[in-house]
Structure formats: structure tokens, C-alpha cells
Amino acid sequence: MHPQRKKRLHLIIFLVLAVTAAVGLAMYSLSQNINLFQTPTQIANGEVPPGRTIRAGGLVVAGSVERDSEGLGVIFRVTDGQSEVPIYYEGILPDLFREGQGIVALGQINNDGMFVASEVLAKHDENYMPPEVQAALDQAHKDGKASMQEAMENAREEADY
Amino acid sequence: MLDTAMLHLPEIGQFALIMAFIMAVLQVIVPLVGVNRGQLWLMGYARPLAVGQSLFLVISLVLLATSFVMDDFSVAYVAANSNSLLPTPYKISAVWGAHEGSLLLWVTMLGLWSVAVALLSRSLPLDMVARVLSIMGMVSVGFILFTLETSNPFARHLPSPPQEGGDLNPLLQDFGLIVHPPTLYMGYVGLSVAFAFALAALMSGRLDAAWARWSRPWTTAAWIFLTVGIALGSWWAYYELGWGGWWFWDPVENASLMPWLVATALLHSLAVTEKRGLFKSWTVLLAIFAFSLSLLGTFLVRSGVLTSVHAFASDPERGVFILALLGICVGGSLLLYAMKAPTVASVGRYEVVSRETALLVNNLLLVVMALAVLTGTLYPLVYDFMGLGKLSVGAAWFNTMFVPLTIALAVLMGFGAMSRWKSDSVSRLASQLWLAGLLAVVFAIVVALVVSEVVSASVVVGLGISFWLVFATFADIWKKARGRVSKIPSLGVSYLGMVIAHLGVAVSIIGVTMVANFSIEKSVRMAPGQVETLGDYQFEFTEAGTIDGPNYTSQATRFNLYKEGKLIEVLTAEKRRYHARGSIMTEAAIDVTLFRDVYLSMGESLEDGSWGMRLQVKPFMRWVWLGAIFMSVGGLMAVLDKRYRRRRKKESLA
Q1: In terms of domains, do B162 and B191 share one?
Q2: B96, B8: one domain
Q3: Residues B313, B364: one domain?
Q4: How many Å separate Cα A57 from the centre of its chain?
Q5: What is the spatial distance between Cα A92 and Cα B599, in angstroms, rounded to a whole number?
Q6: Domain boundary among B417, B441, B466
């Protein structure tokens, strides 16, 4: 082989190996570090195993925020309109955290079905709804409608008898 | 009352914007026709048209600012983003506080860069000037059209305008937000100059050292703005968001980091192209990617496709428009590249151990970093698009990718800056640098032992690569100056600029290492009179009260900060409620020294008069941004090097 070509071939092989290694490393660590978003309904249905780090979110249920009398612990519930999930967090809540606001939290479900958050995010803009929360609300709304329709149809069928 | 002339200001502003659009269209067509027909008088129109276009853009921007200052709430954009109580400097910065105005600022800056090219290109052949300005005109046409079609800032609320405006988002009512967006935009848009130069060179088939030399100072200038813009954004997020974090791997931060990484690669690749006539097509490709990534950044921020702290309410139509612009820009330039690049031959040889190789590896590392950021940023989008669900890529992932690449890059920098063009030898480099390497390792271990009882690998490595960079750089200066301090100034402004920029990298890495490893914080419930200890510091909660601001009222807490029993500072943290929107903002109190920040911010008010407080001590925080200042100063020195001007003079004589 021409020495120039050989040199180029070596370079290409080196590059391909380097890129493969980089992509492999990236994909491996990506699989370790992604946090799936789960809706309150999915959590309430037990679709999420305890101990796995996920993101959960929804609207903060009015009147559900309870604080510790000592320390900075707080418990509140979030809803997607269909199911509610209790969230425990210890620390400073963001400025835009309030009842009725869409929030996203990062954490794990414990064995009692409580979501223990290590981080609670609310966004900069009070009119802004996190897209995940919006999608969860829409999904629950759709599911709710579907199940209501089903119930109505069942009732109608029963009435027909 | 507003008088009649004033009532028409927004219309005049819009008219000016339309005029600018017409000028931009002419700026695209006339010079190109001139180039094709070889008619100098047509090419000669490029400069006056660029000046005219930007004049109209400036008029338009000034009129929008005037509407803000005069509280003309009949303009929908003003009504949505200002308020009569807003202090005047913030009324002006509110111009770029939301989408429409930031776009206008974006195109105006593009106009100003075109004018700069028009005025500072006396030594360039006229056909190159014509091509470059024509290409910049194309970008301008796209974005002015976008502004006029989807995001007109001059649209009116008629017939019944509101009496009062909705106010500027309180987060943006801050000095950092007056300066951060314009600086960052200058950087984004400045990359269009490098892009236009690259495409112009491709079109003319003159991808040579002269092209690289013209392109270099412009690329460096844009890179300086990007560097400062990113640092300002980080600094703003640090003190304004109240969390004390300085980088969140948020999609919008990533959007600014990607073009920076590629622009950094471009700077180094241009050096090779200028000095050695190599890597030409690679350099062109980097110029295309750098600008495309800044467009992608604009798309990500403006389309709202990503969950981000910056994602303000957005509009899908706009996203589609920007995506189309991005597609045309990337597609068109890559097509041109595919047609023309095969005719470009890089001549010249270099050995495996040489400065060329070092810079090539530097480029690869920087591009891989940019790709990693791109992957992490777009992965959730692709995942969602395929219907697999919603997810986020955590900061941990970005750190895993970034830390090893940064280490490799820093190690390489020590060798690269000292290596010779064409051919060098491992033994020569080793003989020059073994002492620097040894000292770096020893110092890193000693310092790590001094600062904490537990020596962690990450501290030793972080400090080690920083010290290595510093010592290797000094070894190089020592060698080049032949051991005489008096000779250092004669080494050349460009070279010293590089030295300072590289030292800046070391300074930033030291800052990041120290902050990441030795920051301490705690969130506590505190009542007035209570004292909390964090590290060497005592925080005494002395009083709580209220403060009245111009357009807000804040609940405030005052603390005495003691170190080893001695009062060193009185800190006042605030929690502001802005009247117009009723929104609440945390104002952290920060005590700053070069070697540590003490950061105090308020959480919620709890019953019995106590507050949730967040206390933090962050060693070497300032160094993170100080490094960016070093890099910018280094870049500035490189731009100002007489070399560029002197050579141009020679060329114009020839």
C-alpha cells in the first residue's frame, strides 16, 4: 500500500475507534443518568418501583401544603386531575411554589407510596406550565373522559336490559 | 398627554424595519450580481447598502426603546413588558426582555456587524467584500422577515389601549440582565461574520491563508463576546436565582455553550489554516457549524420545545419559522460545501508529533464536547418525539462527559502551546516540560493535603491539570524569552494573548474544582436572635423587617456574619414582592472576597416569625468567572495584534 494511504487508513481507523468509544461511553452513561417523568396517575397505579429516581409533577393541590413545626420539612400533594401523589421535601422551596402551580420534583417513591423529593422546581414565569405537567393533565383528562364514557355506556347497556 | 407626532413613533419604527428589509434584500442581490458580471460599481453598493440597512435597524430599535421610556402602552409589546413604575434603565432593557424585542436587537446587531465589516475591510478585495456582505444580508433578510411576520414588536393594542403595563418579569429587573443578553447576542451574531467569510471563500474558491487571516480577528471578536456573555449569564443565575448554583446544564445554557465550544475549535483551526495552509475544509465546516449552532440556540430558546428555566411562554409558529431558517442555512451552506470543498486541496505535510497534530486533537476534543452537549440537550426531545415518554438528562451525565474531556484538553494544552510546527519530538517536549509536570503533581498533592484532611482524587486531578497548564505556560515563556524578563513584551501581543487566555482556563478550572469539592451549605429554620454555624462562619439573625423599593416591597432579614468571633459583614437578604405582577423574587446577600463567597438567601416565612434560610460558603467562586475575564482579555490582545493591520497594508500596496 502507498505509505500516504496507509497513514490515512491508520488515521481513519483511529478516528472510528475514538468515536465509537466516545459514543459508547455517552450512551452507557446516558442510560444511567436519565430521569423519566411519571404522572401522578402512573405513580398511583403502582407503575413506578420504589427507590428508582424519577421526575414527578403536577399541580399543587390547594390546601394540601403542610409544614413541619420544627425544621424545614414540608408535605404537599400534586395532582393531574385524576390521581394525587403526596410529596415530601426538606429544604427551601422555590419562589414560585404555591398552591395550584405546576411543579416538577426529582426524587424517589418510598415504600409507603410517598414521593421523597431531593429537588423541587417551579419555573421563572408564573404563566408558564412545565410541558410535562401539561401533558400529564391532558392525558388524565383524556383518560378520565374515556372512563366516564365507558361508565356511561355500561350504564346505558344495563338500562337496555 | 401624548402629542400626535409621538403617537406615530411605533409606525415609523415599523416602517424603518420594512425599509431595513428592503435594504437587506438589495444587499443580497446587487453585490452578487456585480460579482457574477464582474462589474465593480455594483459590488461597490455592498458597503453603502449595509450601512443603510443598519441605520434603519438602529432607528427601529431606538423608536421601540422610546415607546418603552414614554410608557406608550398602546404598543402591545410595551404593555406586556413594562410598567410606569419601572425604573428607566429597566424600561430600556425591557426592550430585549421578551421575544419580539430580542429579535429586533438580534437583527440590529447583525446590521452593526455588517457595518463593522464594511468599514474595516478596506484592504479586502472588493469582490470578497461584496460576497461577505451579500451572505450577511441573506441572514438579515431571513431574520427581519421573521420579525415582521411572526413577532412584530410594534403591533398596537387598539382601539382601547391599557392604562398600565403588565411589568417586566422581575427576574429580568437586574443589572446582569441589562448586559447579559446583548453581549451574548453580539457573540451569536458575530459568528455570522466567520460564517460569511467561509462561504464567500468557498464561493470564490479562494480558501487560502489570506482568507484565514481576514477571518481570524472577526472570529476572535465574536468569541470574546460569547465568552463574556456566557460568564455574565452564569454570574447572573448565581446571584439572582437564589440557589447559589452557577451552571445548571439547562438547555438554554447549553445552547450558548455549544457555539462557544465550536468557535473555540474554529479559532485554533484558523491558526493552522493561516500559518500552514492546512485543515482548510475542516475550518470552513467549523465556521458553518459554529453559526448553525447559534441559530439552533435561538430556535431552542424561542420555540419552547424544551423544558428550561428560560422557557417563557412560546409560540409553535415561531419555532417552525426558525427551524426553516436553520434548515435553509445549514442545508444551503453544506450543499455549497459539498460542491466546492472537493476542489480545495490542503498542501503541506506534518509529522505525528507536531503543533498541527496537537491543534487537530484540540479540535476533536472540543467538537466531541459540543456533540456531547448537543446529545444531552436534544435527547429528551428525540425521546419525546418518538413517543417514548418524557425524561430529562441530569447534570450528572453532562459532568461525566465533560470532566474527562476537559482533563484531556488541559493536558494537551500544555504540550500544544509549546510544540513546533511541522515536526517536533517527544524527547524535546519531555525535556522542556518534565519539570512543569512534576511540579504540577507535587503542588496539587500538597495543596490538596493543606486544604482538607481527606485527599480526594478529583481535587488532585483538578488542581493538577490547572498547575500543569500554568507551569507549562511559564516554561514556554521562559524558553521563548531566553530567561530574560525584559524580553517578554517583545514576544508579541498575540502570543501573550494566548498565554493569558490559557492561564484563564487554568484559573477557571481551579475555581470549578474548589467550588465543586469544598462548597458547604445548609438550609435551616431560623428565628431572630438565633445563631447558626457553617464552617468557620457564624450567622446571627439580628432582625426581620420590610423595605420599600420603587416597584416592589420586600421582606428582609438582617444577619451579622462572624468569622472566629469577629464581625466581618452585615448581610441583608430580601424577598421581594413586585406590585405589578405580585410575583416574588429572592435577593441573595453575598459577601465576596477573592477566595470565598458567603451566600445567604431567604426561603419561606414560617410561623412564629422564623424563616427558612439557605446558608452557603463557596471557596474560590470568583475564579470561575475570573478565568473567563482572562480568556476575553487574551482574545482582545490577539484581535489587537498589529500583525493583522501591518500585513494588510503590505497587501494593499502589492
Answers
A1: no
A2: yes
A3: yes
A4: 6
A5: 14
A6: B417
Measure the CA–CA gap between A8 and B612, rounded to whole angstroms.
63
Cα torsion angle, B478, B481, B485, B488, sign:
negative
Q: Is residue B346 part of a domain?
A: no
Residues B258 and B381 in one domain: yes
Output B391 or B640, whichever has higher pLDDT.
B640
What's the pTM?
Answer: 0.90
Task: Kindly determine whether residue A26 and residue B312, on different chains, have CB atoms separated by under 8 Å.
Answer: no
| pLDDT above 70 (res B37) | yes
pLDDT of amino acid A161: 57
Per residue, the 3-state secondary structure of B129-169, as one string, reads: HHHHHHHHHHHHHHHHHHHHHHCCCCCECCCCCCCCCCCCC
Residue numbers in A near B362 (CB within 8 A): none
* Cβ-defined contact of A37 to B390 (cutoff 8 Å): yes
Which residues of chain A fall below pLDDT 70?
1-4, 7, 123-131, 144-145, 147-148, 151-152, 155-161
Total structural domains within chain B: 4
Average per-residue pLDDT in chain B? 89
Give yes or no for a contact between B617 and B562, defined as CB atoms under 8 angstroms apart: no
Å between B391 CA and nearest CA of chain A: 4
pLDDT digits (tens, 9 = 90+) for B496-547: 999 999 999 999 999 999 999 999 999 999 999 999 999 999 999 999 999 9
Least confident of A90-99, B98-107, B272-281, B398-407: A90-99
Query: Could you give the CA distance from residue B630 to residue B442 in angstroms, rounded to a whole number?
Result: 25
State whether B634 and B602 are in the same domain: no
- Residue B349 resides in a domain: no
Asked if residue B533 and residue B498 are part of one domain, the reply reads no
Residue-range definition of the domain harbouring residue B363: 175-341+354-417
Last residue of one domain, picked from the residues B417, B434, B465: B417
Do the strands A53-60 and A34-38 form a parallel or antiparallel pair, or are they unpaired? parallel
Instruction: Tell me whether residue B347 is in a domain.
Output: no
One domain for residues B504 and B552 = no
Residue B478 inside a domain? The answer is yes
Flag if A123 and B309 touch (Cβ within 8 Å).
Answer: yes
pLDDT (average), residues B138-148: 94
Please name the amino acid found at residue B97: G
Distance CA(B111)–CA(B108), nearest Å, equals: 5
Give the dihedral of Cα atoms B621, B625, B627, B631; nearest 10 deg: 180
Partners of A33 on chain B (C-beta within 8 Å) are: 393-394, 396-397, 400
- CB-CB under 8 Å, A91 with B372: no
Residue from the list B313, B372, B612 with its beta carbon closest to the beta carbon of A72: B612
Please give the average per-residue pLDDT across B461-471, as a whole number: 96
Interface residues on A facing B, Cβ-Cβ cutoff 8 A: 18, 22, 25-26, 29-30, 32-37, 55, 67, 69-72, 90-93, 95-96, 104, 123-128, 130-132, 135
Say what the ipTM of the complex is. Answer: 0.76
Residue pair B374/B443 in contact by the 8 Å Cβ criterion: no
pLDDT value, residue A127: 53
- By CA distance, what is A11's nearest residue in B? B352
Q: Which residues of B touch A (CB under 8 A)?
A: 169, 171, 242, 304, 307, 309-313, 364, 368, 372, 375-376, 379, 389-394, 396-397, 400-401, 523-525, 575, 581, 583-586, 601, 603-604, 606-607, 612-614
Give the three cell numbers for residue A14.
Answer: 483511529
CA distance B309 to chain A (A): 6
Contact across the interface for A72 and B525, Cβ inside 8 Å: yes
Within this chain, do residues B365 and B291 fall inside the same structural domain, yes or no? yes
Of A25, A29, A124, the CB nearest to B171: A124
Nearest by CB: B313 against A72, A93, A127: A127
Cβ pairs A/B, distance under 8 A: 98
